[in-house]
Amino acid sequence: MTERKTSDLSLFFHELKSPINAIINVAKLLELSLTEMDKDKIKNYISLLLSQAVYMKNLISNTLEIGKIQSGKTELFLEEFDIVELLYEIYEWTKILVATKPIEIVLNCSVKNFSVYSDPIKLKQILLNITSNAVKFTDRGFITITLVVEENFVKIVISDTGKGIKNLDTKSLFQPYCSLDSFNKKMHDSTGLGLYISKSLLDLIGGKISIESEYGRGTTVSIRIPKKFKA
Question: What catalytic activity does the UniProt entry give for this protein (predicted)?
Answer without folding.
Answer: ATP + protein L-histidine = ADP + protein N-phospho-L-histidine
